[in-house]
Design goal:
This protein has helices at residues 13-87, 104-107, 117-136, 164-181; strands spanning 93-96, 99-102, 145-149, 189-193. The chain has 196 residues and is mainly alpha-helical. The strands form two sheets. It has a two-stranded antiparallel ribbon with strand order 1-2. A two-stranded parallel sheet has the order 3-4.
Length: 196
């Protein structure tokens, strides 16, 4: 007959202490893991909320930009409509897209950069239209009117103008200065000169 007897092996107290220490460390690691999982879950929730806020902000920004573009288009259309009414009645002023081309002879004597009386009359009409526009366009909309100076077809070299480029720049500056002298804000004007 076989009998089963339990044999107890004595465990040294230091081994039991080590096992207890390991059990405590495992429990601490499990608590840390739970804390990290909770933080990760919280971060994912916040991240989703942030993404939703960013998407909403993007939509609102796009909407605001679209509204601003629409506003600018309306002002641009009104501006060119007014200028067309004022200026396009004349055969010596060409309307080309969004440009009003004054023939040099209307504004200047050949080889000169000083506005002639007829040119001053035309520029007064332009100045009045620009001043009205300045009052109507909100101040937070940045806009400029570029005045392009051109020259006669003949090459020039004089004491006053050494090249056609200098003449064209002087003509553009003369128009800009005239507009400023007649109440147009300098921040809305740009002078540009072109060569032959």
């Amino acid at each position: 007959e076989i009998s089963h007897r339990k044999v107890q092996i004595p465990v040294p107290p230091e081994a039991l202490a080590k096992v207890e220490l390991l059990n405590q460390q495992i429990a601490a690691m499990r608590r840390q893991l739970q804390t990290l999982n909770a933080l990760l879950s919280d971060a994912e929730t916040k991240n989703k909320a942030s993404e939703a806020q960013i998407a909403d902000l993007g939509k609102r920004l796009n909407s605001a930009l679209a509204q601003r573009v629409q506003e600018l288009t309306r002002y641009r259309s009104e501006f060119f409509g007014r200028l067309r009414q004022i200026l396009s009645q004349r055969s010596d002023i060409l309307v080309v897209g969004d440009r009003f081309v004054f023939q040099a002879e209307v504004l200047f004597q050949k080889g000169q950069a000083a506005l002639n009386p007829e040119g001053e009359t035309e520029m007064l009409k332009l100045a009045d239209a620009l001043k009205q526009l300045e009052r109507e366009i909100p101040t937070d909309i940045a806009w400029v009117l570029r005045v392009d100076g051109h020259t006669d077809n003949d090459p020039i070299q004089s004491v006053q103008f050494k090249s056609n480029w200098e003449l064209s720049a002087a003509r553009a500056i003369a128009v800009v200065n005239f507009l400023i002298a007649n109440g147009v804000s300098p921040q809305h004007l740009v002078a540009a000169g072109f060569g032959e």
